[in-house]
Amino acid sequence: MDEKILEFFTALLERLSGISYTTGKEYLIESRLNELALSLGYKDINELYQSIVKKGVDSKLLNEIIDALTTNETYFFRDYHPFEALRTHVFPELFKKREVEKRINIWSAACSTGQEPYSIAMLLLEHFPRFLQTYKITILATDISQKCLEKAEKGVYNQIEINRGLPVTYLIKYFKQDGAHWYIDEKVKKLVKFQRLNLLESSMRLSEKFDLILCRYVLIYFSEEIKKKVLIDLWKLLNPGGYLLLGATEVPTVTFSDMEKKLIGKTIFYRKKD
């Protein structure tokens, strides 16, 4: 792929989403854009690029470029240990702390096709059903990819997706099979609200604050400058006493005076001091 075309698309992606492709990923960009170009009726990436240069790019095409170039790796109960920490420590603490307000807000940022927020919903249904009756618990799940959100809202998964991380007890209890697909139970779906959101705009678009924010395996795709901006925004949106969970390999590139690092089991959380 021509260097000029590569620079055009990578700059466009970083401007729109904050995602920065590092050197060595050119093959990935080329294969994904080539697939997109063919699906849109163009001969190749060059023809797609020339069309954009001449006609500009509308919001629909921008969304398709974002969908093509973003990584949507996810699965149910990913890494397992964070969910065990939520069950044994974080949720019991939050329910106790919020027993006057009886309200807990949870945000699954960059939720991809929905496995993470649905995992949280199933965890609550399985282990904290009485709190679902007495507290107002909201699970907001956001992503920049419209295609991912559409799949997440349907709550329909294939056998490979089901086999990745989902305990068989949860499969039996919260899914129904129809042919080659598995449909998540409506009582799980109704706990999660999906919304399209660019993480770069979170502080402007979200007015509520959260008691638990999960932003896992996302920062690794951002430049240092964008990582800092996103973390500042996440921290502003976290309630005092709330918890931020990043991916297992991710560490904050900026710290705050009210940030407390907590190791719970095998998982590191970042707690906002009261």
TrEMBL record:
Its EC number is 2.1.1.80. Residues 1-274 form the CheR-type methyltransferase domain. GO terms for molecular function: protein-glutamate O-methyltransferase activity. It catalyses: L-glutamyl-[protein] + S-adenosyl-L-methionine = [protein]-L-glutamate 5-O-methyl ester + S-adenosyl-L-homocysteine. Gene3D superfamilies: Chemotaxis receptor methyltransferase CheR, N-terminal domain (1.10.155.10), Vaccinia Virus protein VP39 (3.40.50.150). Keywords: Methyltransferase, S-adenosyl-L-methionine, Transferase. InterPro entries: Bact_Chemotaxis_MeTrfase (IPR050903), CheR_C (IPR022642), CheR_MeTrfase (IPR000780), CheR_N (IPR022641), CheR_N_sf (IPR036804), SAM-dependent_MTases_sf (IPR029063). GO terms for biological process: methylation. SUPFAM superfamilies: Chemotaxis receptor methyltransferase CheR, N-terminal domain (SSF47757), S-adenosyl-L-methionine-dependent methyltransferases (SSF53335). This is protein-glutamate O-methyltransferase. It comes from Thermodesulfobacterium geofontis (strain OPF15).
